[in-house]
Amino acid sequence: MTGFASARAEHNGWALRVSVKSVNHRFLDVKLRIPEGFDLYEIRLRQAVREKILRGHVEVTVNIRPSAGAALQINNDVAHAYLKAAEGLRAGAASSGELDVVALLRLPGVVTGAAPEVPESEEERERLGAVLTGCLAEALAELEVMRRVEGRHLAEDLRARTARIAEQAARVRELAKSMQPAFQRRLEGRLKELLSGTGLDPQRLAQEAALLAERSDVSEELDRLRSHLTQFAQVVEAGGEAGKKLDFLLQEMHREANTLLSKTPGVESEGLAITGLALEIKAEIEKLREQVQNIE
């Protein structure tokens, strides 16, 4: 599920900010952006994410800057070297453009004390790691609140779609009950064409119609579909790590819908109606599968 959150902290003259953004993804994919030299904290930060998020593309960005009261110094030698080089370029190009002081301050080495450095002592490194981890935990907690709100809306949509599938399946069941007379009429018409008016044995005709109806019986598929819908609802209500379970159940539902289509050829109006309902069920299942990709 999607969301964004951030948290801030201060440590030893540095202002820390950790932001977390998540978007939908079938698996867990963590991308970490951290200042150069601070790679030693990468494993613990990734582990903190894995403990809270199971699915999704997650981007974690760590910013470390001087706090408001931190002292900065200008390296005049480096700044003047940049100015001299800029003046030479401007004279050679016959340019009258003014030098941007802010841009000059952003050049490497001009401002000292602006680039964070990893603490030298093991004890101080551990303190900084604890602050970073705590900052990330705060951002993840805020992100979880947003994801839960989205999850409640998503659960409502899942319930509405499964209810529509159950309603369509119930209509298929009612239509299937009236199929046998249609099979008999269809079989009788075919036999008349083949026998060219020769008399038909009513008992034999009934047997063939019953056999055709049995081959096209969809009651088992409907029973399994109903069972899958019940399990689907139970998993949604239970919460927790539900995404993979729901995805599996939807695959099974999709298989039953395909079987419905294969067993109900266009036998008069009833067969056409069942085909239409089976297609609607497949469409709802596809929409559910898209939504389930957002669930852990």
Q: What can be said about this structure in brief?
A:
The strands form 2 sheets. This protein has a 4-stranded mixed sheet, with helices on one face. It has a two-stranded antiparallel ribbon with strand order 5-6. It is 63% helix and 14% strand. The termini are close together.
Topology (elements, then pairings):
Layout: E1 3-11, E2 14-23, E3 28-33, H1 42-52, E4 56-66, E5 73-74, H2 76-92, H3 101-105, E6 111-112, H4 122-177, H5 179-195, H6 202-215, H7 219-238, H8 243-263, H9 268-292
Parallel strand pairs: 3-4
Antiparallel strand pairs: 1-2, 2-4, 5-6
List descriptors:
single chain, 296 residues, 9 helices
Number of strands: 6
Question: What is the residue-mean pLDDT, rounded to a whole number?
Answer: 80
Overall, the morphology is: elongated
Encode the helix/strand succession as letters.
EEEHEEHHEHHHHHH
Instruction: Give the terminus-to-terminus CA distance.
Output: 8 Å
Percentage of helical residues?
Answer: 55-70%
Instruction: Pick out the low-confidence regions.
Output: none
* Residue fraction in strands: 5-15%
Radius of gyration using CA atoms only: 34 Å
Sketch the major β-sheet: 4 strands, mixed
- Structural class designation: alpha+beta
